[in-house]
């Protein structure tokens, strides 16, 4: 019997904070999402190869520019609201959760429409060719549908229930690839090739929306649209929104500047390199999402757990990035020739640098999620602003001289400076010290550079050996997988001395 007989027989709602803090659920969610990302990345890669081989160099450059521009629109469509809302979605009040969910979805829908308008306005105002304007207007529908779709993913993330999200995104990519193949066979034109991405996002949004009807999630949105909640959501997210906007600008400004300072052909060559680096970005974002849920649940009552999860995640991200670098660096030329054709082989040096940049970027992503989980996001915008200014300045100098190679150099330098500044600030502002395992990561960087350089020399002498060299290079890094486990085990115990008074 309860103290109030009126509540007898009524099952109490689950403790969603405990659900969010479950590391096993987070591990399952991470594995589910990573498998999905592998499927999506592989199918997306095949689709990009089909498009690149079907269009002329100039049209492929225009296609790549349009989707790079739409990526920039995340500046207004994301705003970091999802990371702020995450803590409210594990609230103990079901009505609060429902109202938060409905308001969040509605806000993201409005932001998607705003992002679409800005993308189309950009190409119109700057006088881009009519074909680019038309392609942006059509492909921009991706932003309209994807923005609320990402809001639904955040809802599922708050429960570590990401299986439906993974299935929906994988099947959506299957739809996109199937339509891309049909377009290549029957109508291989720029405007037709942007349609599959739109259909993909429509499918994903529909599937995720249907899944929310499952009452066991405790995420069914309220029928009441409380617009007044938008203000607090946006105000709380302002520091993170500014930082994320500047980060997205850092990530995409090189393509936009390349389109203005060089040709669409150069954009196309450069974008081939991004197809490889984007895979690392996709995986790091997928893995960071469940990690952020664990960090939110541990802060601020379990600082030793917070430290352990930060260090383990950092080491895991670093090793994953290093594996990608040593596998790709020696074999960049033959891989690009094999997949995209001889005309894109000249972009191999830029592709190598972009993959290195993506590996560095994974630690920036983790750092952003970490400061957000601890409510310290106000410190990040200044770092991101400095990074953006550095990137723009380097691009203005290097693109006219080195074209897309100059853009790649600018990107790597920018990310290296940003990751050093970000983690230095984290070490200074957080009450928990040693959140980044510096010594193991430094050893990993030196080892990665040596293996990559040696592998490139071997392939230069025996070009046919590139598949073997890449495999051997990855195997050479396997001891660091053991280091990851050791870092995790060492941090399983509490570290009172790591917490500042």
From TrEMBL:
One Gene Ontology cellular component: plasma membrane
Give the matching InterPro entries.
Poly_Biosynth_Transport (IPR050833), Polysacc_synth (IPR002797)
How does this protein sit in the membrane? Multi-pass membrane protein
Q: Which Pfam family, giving just one, matches this sequence? A: Polysacc_synt
Keywords, ordered alphabetically: Cell membrane, Membrane, Transmembrane, Transmembrane helix
Q: Which CDD domains match?
A: MATE_Wzx_like
Top-level division of the source organism's lineage: Bacteria
Location in or out of the cell: Cell membrane
* Transmembrane regions: 31-51, 63-85, 105-125, 132-156, 176-199, 237-259, 279-300, 312-330, 350-372, 379-400, 406-426, 438-458, 464-484
- Mind telling me which PANTHER family this protein's record contains? O-ANTIGEN TRANSPORTER-RELATED (PTHR30250:SF11), PST FAMILY PREDICTED COLANIC ACID TRANSPORTER (PTHR30250)
Question: What is this protein's name?
Answer: Transporter
Query: Taxonomic lineage of this organism?
Result: Bacteria, Bacillati, Actinomycetota, Actinomycetes, Mycobacteriales
């Amino acid at each position: 019997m309860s103290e109030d007989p009126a509540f007898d027989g009524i099952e109490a709602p689950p403790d969603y904070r405990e659900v969010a803090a479950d590391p096993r659920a987070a591990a399952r969610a991470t594995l589910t999402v990573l498998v999905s990302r592998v499927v999506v990345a592989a199918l997306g890669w095949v689709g990009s190869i089909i498009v690149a081989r079907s269009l002329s160099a100039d049209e492929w450059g225009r296609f790549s520019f349009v989707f790079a521009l739409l990526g920039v629109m995340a500046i207004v469509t994301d705003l970091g609201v999802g990371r702020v809302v995450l803590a409210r979605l594990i609230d103990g009040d079901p009505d609060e959760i429902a109202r938060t969910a409905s308001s969040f979805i509605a806000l993201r829908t409005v932001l998607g429409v705003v992002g679409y308008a800005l993308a189309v306005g950009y190409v119109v105002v700057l006088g881009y060719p009519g074909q680019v304007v038309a392609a942006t207007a059509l492909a921009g529908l991706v932003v309209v549908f994807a923005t609320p779709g990402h809001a639904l993913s955040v809802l599922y993330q708050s429960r570590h229930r990401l299986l439906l999200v993974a299935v929906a995104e994988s099947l959506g990519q299957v739809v996109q690839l199937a339509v891309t193949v049909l377009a290549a066979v029957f109508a291989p034109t720029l405007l037709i090739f942007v349609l599959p991405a739109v259909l993909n996002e429509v499918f994903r949004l529909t599937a995720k929306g249907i899944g929310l009807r499952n009452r066991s999630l405790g995420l069914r949105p309220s029928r009441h649209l409380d617009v007044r909640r938008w203000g607090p959501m946006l105000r709380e997210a302002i520091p993170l929104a500014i930082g994320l906007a500047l980060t997205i600008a850092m990530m995409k400004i090189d393509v936009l500047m390349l389109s203005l300072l060089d040709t669409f052909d150069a954009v196309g060559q450069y974008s081939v390199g991004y197809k490889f680096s984007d895979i690392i970005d996709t995986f790091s974002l997928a893995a960071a999402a469940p990690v952020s849920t664990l960090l939110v649940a541990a802060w601020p009552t379990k600082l030793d757990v917070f430290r352990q999860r930060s260090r383990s995640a950092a080491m895991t991200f670093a090793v994953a990035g290093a594996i990608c670098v040593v596998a790709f660096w020696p074999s960049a030329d033959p891989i690009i020739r094999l997949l995209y054709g001889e005309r894109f082989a000249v972009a191999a040096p830029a592709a190598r640098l972009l993959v290195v940049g993506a590996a560095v970027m994974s630690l920036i992503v983790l750092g952003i999620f970490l400061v957000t989980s601890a409510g310290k996001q106000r410190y990040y915008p200044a770092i991101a602003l400095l990074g953006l200014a550095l990137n723009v300045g380097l691009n203005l100098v290097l693109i006219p001289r080195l074209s897309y190679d100059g853009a790649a150099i600018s990107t790597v330098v920018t990310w290296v400076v940003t990751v050093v500044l970000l983690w230095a600030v984290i070490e200074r502002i957080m009450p928990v010290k040693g959140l980044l395992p510096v010594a193991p990561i430094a050893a990993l960087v030196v080892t990665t550079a040596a293996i990559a350089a040696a592998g490139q020399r071997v392939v230069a002498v025996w070009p046919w050996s590139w598949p073997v060299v890449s495999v051997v290079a990855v195997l050479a890094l396997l001891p660091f997988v053991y280091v990851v486990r050791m870092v995790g085990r060492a941090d399983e115990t509490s570290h009172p001395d790591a917490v500042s008074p």
